[in-house]
Amino acid sequence: MMNNKSAVELVHEGTRFISNEDYQNAVLYLEKALQSQCHGNVHLNLVRTIYQHLGKAYFHLNNLEKAFHYQKNDCILSRELGDENSEICSRDNLIYTLKKMDRFDDAIKCCKNYIQLSEKAGKKIVMARAYYGMANVHHMKAKKEINTPPVGLNADLKTIGELNIALKYYKMSLEALEETKDDVEKGRTNGMIGYAYYLLGDGKQAEPFYMKRLSIAKQYGDKAAVLRTYINLGHNCILLRDYSRAVDFYVQALTLSRQLGDVTLEGQTCYSIGSTYAIMEDYRSAVEHYNRHKEIAQQLNDKIGLACSLGLLSRTYLKLNEPEAAKVHARKQLQVAKESGSAEMKLKAQQNVIDICGVTRDDVNNDDHYINGDSTATTNGGDDEQDKLTPEFLDLIQRLQGRRLNDQRVDTTSPQDDAVAANDEDNLMC
Fold this sequence. Notes:
By secondary structure, this protein is mostly helical. 73% of the residues lie in helices and 0% in strands.
């Protein structure tokens, strides 16, 4: 049946499959259409369209090499045809794919050409997008080098330099946007400037940009963006050690996550609230929110998130001078950690049992002994460091701002916040 169709019909079918997110079939039809152009009259505009759609389909199939191949062909052919709008679109796609491939230096070269094209075109919205693209590449390049929460003075000069370049281009993008009516892009760019300052450890500079992001999101009724911004503002307040305000923002995020039915974000926000209350030494409130985090982890069958919750609860019960409850939760944490298959979580849980139950490493290796609670060891009274701003909490905040939660999570994916846009902007494929 496919053999009887013209190239135009094949392309039409291919784009229909893309619209339906059936990328495998889209590739079959589009490649057949491309083959037909190799054996007959060549229509360059049609070929360019095929390249564009094949790039998009392969990107969604996570075949980035092939996506890059067709996007590059699309770019070259668009330039040969003198179609500046198509060339701009293809460069946008190329940059996005290169970032996904961690080919940042190549993406930067592509951004430079993109900026030249946009400035030549003289359209502010196109210029803003080009500057944003350059900023985003440098932002991602820096994030790849950051393994801890807000870098501040702890980062090497190269990473700080990348973030400062990102800030420069984000601000150029925002300046260009001021001459347009695209408030949605203004909001997103303000959020990214805030995040770049946050990564630099400059919470005071970050806050007004986050607040502007919040204002625009509220203005347009974008509840998902409002939710993400509340969370980012909470994280920023932790950076500033303004814990009461952090709780306020987290609570607003929690309320909105429940309204939107986003259970994953609800769980992650409960974790943040619980940890902030622990820092403030309000351990009863911490237990309340850790328990909700635990319930959601159970609901989502997230073993690592559940193990994390149990560990947090065990240490918090020590602070409440309830050693038996602490021991029960520590043993449960180890049991769940074993079931999760995570060697890292298992090691953490084993150490927690040793610390809380007062047993030895040999005791921990005897499953019946520690899981069934046969230990007669006594606790040291819970003189741990949870009342401090722990590296674990800061690390979670950093991970919440990134692509995945590898630890202390409720689900395997992080919220799609403005920080995630540093990695995954809203689908930029043209």
